[in-house]
Amino acid sequence: MAEPARQTEAILEVRGLHKHYPLTQGIVFKKQVGAVRAVDGVDLDLAAGETLGIVGESGCGKSTLARLLVHLERPTAGVIRYKGEDITKLSGRALKAVRRNIQMVFQDPYTSLNPRMTVGDIIGEPYEIHPEVAPKGDRRQKVQDLLDVVGLNPEYINRYPHQFSGGQRQRIGIARGLALQPEIIVADEPVSALDVSVQAQVVNLLDKLQNEFGLSYVFIAHDLSIVRHISDRVGVMYLGRIVEIGKDAEIYDHPTHPYTQALLSAVPVPDPTAREHRERILLTGDVPSPANIPSGCRFRTRCWKARQRCAQEVPLLAVPAVFRDDRSPAAHDSACHFAEEKHVVPLEPGPVT
Ligand SMILES: Nc1ncnc2c1ncn2[C@@H]1O[C@H](COP(=O)(O)OP(=O)(O)OP(=O)(O)O)[C@@H](O)[C@H]1O
Ligand code: SF4
Ligand SMILES: [Mg+2]
Known about the structure:
Layout lengths: L9 E16 L5 E17 L3 E5 L6 H8 L7 E6 L2 E2 L5 H10 E4 L13 H6 L1 H4 L9 H11 L16 H13 L5 E5 L7 H18 L2 E6 L2 H5 L4 E6 L2 E7 H6 L4 H8 L6 H6 L30 H5 L20 E2 L19
Parallel strand pairs: 3-8, 3-9, 6-7, 7-8
Antiparallel strand pairs: 1-2, 1-4, 4-5, 9-10, 10-11
The structure holds adenosine-5'-triphosphate, iron/sulfur cluster (SF4) and magnesium ion.
The site of iron/sulfur cluster has 12 residues, from loops.
Pfam family, one: oligo_HPY
InterPro entries: AAA+_ATPase, ABC_transp_ATP-bind, ABC_transporter-like_ATP-bd, ABC_transporter-like_CS, Oligopep_ABC_C, P-loop_NTPase
Keywords: ATP-binding, Nucleotide-binding, Transport
């Protein structure tokens, strides 16, 4: 991948990241017969203070990538660097120190909060592992401050998750993610389980918190429309890899990868005239199994532009040769042998209300 031209230093760098889950046969003598290649060669950078949106269809490896980034799982191969230090193989105290700085917010606020714990205990639980952040006597006050920061009444500290709405529960999940004062938050579809009217409020809260605490976000979603408002850059994932990545205007207004163009053409457009004139790109066929990834370009079985070369040669994630001397927004990383611009009805960047 071409090194991104950004002034700010990367707080997180990912190179050649893989997570393969073995497929085994047999009960007593287990034999590996293949592997689910959930994450299959991801490269990305996250700059301090920026939001990187990651989008892709169900099963493309988004949650696996998230778990790798926060060290909930170890990669099969590849490197994750935090502030220049390789953290991939850390263990013990060194790992604990790094994990404090990279926290996760989960998708489903209904299942990710323990129903038998009070909100105070849920938000304060990370202090049991990191007592240095909040000595016992200070914890109640810290948790109440966090409730206030995420827009909940500090007096709710003794309530249980079932006493809150979905949006409020996600606020509790965010407060918990903030408890250790991390620098990076990996949010795995944080609004997907919420009503549309509540999604905007939670996205706006994340935006506000980013400004307040200088956070860097990896914000995962399956829909391009959700990440537009919050992302500085967007990466599009397909079958375990990023196939196109760039600044948000580059991806939304000048996509060059057929998969991104198809995803964009499926996003709901509020303006009826624009809706009437837009071309829907319908992808044929199902997403192939990550245990059986097509040769060459992994998107070729669903791509309307596929040619012979696409089956033989893996396209690299780089600025395509046709745009290399170009200063236009089309000159961003796209893993396609035949990358070209295609007009897709633009998605309004307006503020979320
Ligand atoms: N622990 C595991 N063991 C085996 N396969 C797994 C495991 N975790 C995930 N997978 C497989 O890896 C692939 C990617 O899964 P992942 O949950 O990362 O996708 P996703 O993009 O988050 O999907 P969704 O949008 O549905 O949340 C899927 O085929 C999934 O079945
Ligand atoms: S490399 Fe070929 S199959 Fe892959 S996206 Fe480009 S045109 Fe389609
Ligand atoms: Mg997921």
